[in-house]
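Our consortium's second objective concerns turning raw sequence data into structural hypotheses that experimental partners can test. To show how far this objective has progressed, the report includes one record in full. It was chosen at random from the queue rather than selected for favorable results. The single chain below, 101 residues long, was entered without modification.
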Amino acid sequence: MMGFFRDQNPKLRHRGHVWSVYVTAAARGQGLGRQLMTGLVERAAATEGIEQVVLSVSTTQVAAVRLYRSLGFESFGIEPRAMKIGDRYFDHEHMVLMFGR
């Protein structure tokens, strides 16, 4: 599963956002995440006015980071302690894929 939304503010409508990407443990390693993300990127690129897609991913999710990079996403920063679960903090890597550069 995954979510996608486009900014509605006129100054930000050129951006799309990916959120809550999740593939069950039983389905991992079968290319499902790649298929979902490829479809999302293709649809976003075909949407008039969308020039870039942004996402953030926990730095502990090595396979996800690798997938996003393989699709052309580039890092533009690390947010330390972006998420807290119990007493444990997780950093998030912010990534962007730009169309038509």
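The partners drew two points from this record. The chain has a mean pLDDT of 95. The first strand starts at residue 3 and ends at 6. Both points have been shared with the crystallography group to help prioritize constructs.
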